[in-house]
Amino acid sequence: MAGRSELPETWLAHGNPWEFERRESSYEIGFGGSVETVNVDEEVTRYVWKPAERVIATACDTPVVGWRAKRVNTLRLWTAHPIDPILLDAFNAGDHIGALRESNKAESLARVLYPADATPAGQELRLRQEFFFSSASLQDILRRHLQQYPDFTSLPDKVAIQLNDTHPAVSVAELVRLLTDVHGMDFETAWDIARHTFSYTNHTLLPEALETWPVPLFERLLPRHMQIVYAINARSCSRPASRRPIPIRRSAISP
């Protein structure tokens, strides 16, 4: 109707009594930086991602209780915290607003879900946000898996990850990165585990559910993941023509 405007619902202004922050379940999430190549021996090459920016993802659990149920499930969400809440050098130099730059940047990751991506800044924030939640969830899954099982060979049998539309699709490259770069697994084994762990559902053909990312943005923000995406694409294109996907374009990358 004319004269109406949409306003946010500030239902969390005074906190959520059913949400419990789990500081013991916190993980570092990186952005940007560079990738170094380390030759372990003549046959083994490792890649070390050195992010230029880092934030902390902290778990927040909400109990989900069924009517007269005997067990309580848990909805685990994530909030973002900066590595350095305040830049003292900037603050002491009189830049009181700039001193909180890292805090504001971290908080923006969880402040508004799915920000508008009509501008380059909005598009970058959306990609940052999607990677933040995806990486935190995957790191948590792998940690909890190792608490019960000796390695990740059983991951597809114990864990099922459902990707709803393209928003969390960067999880595929992130799982491969975690298995290879962090846990020392070879690429082929890591890729095979990822293929059998993930499932994908596409709910609509609307553009907001079929995101694409400019390659320069993806390379700048997630350089190691760009390498992994190219490696996955090369292996997919080497399959028989009847099962071959469309190669990615240099101008844009679709999750």
Overall description:
The chain has 255 residues and is an alpha+beta fold. It has a single domain (20-253), classed as Glycogen Phosphorylase B (Rossmann fold). Helices cover 37% and strands 24% of the residues. The chain is built from eight helices and nine strands. It has helices at 88-92, 101-111, 120-148, 155-158, 171-182, 187-197, 215-221, 223-237; strands spanning 20-31, 34-39, 45-50, 53-65, 72-82, 161-164, 198-201, 213-214, 252-253. The chain has a three-stranded antiparallel β-sheet with strand order 1-4-5. The chain has a two-stranded antiparallel ribbon with strand order 2-3. Strands 6-7 form a two-stranded parallel sheet. β2 and β3 (45-50) form a beta hairpin. α3 (120-148) crosses α5, α5 (171-182) packs antiparallel against α6 (187-197) and α5 crosses α8 (223-237). The longest helix is centred in the middle third of the chain and has 29 residues, at 120-148. The protein is globular.
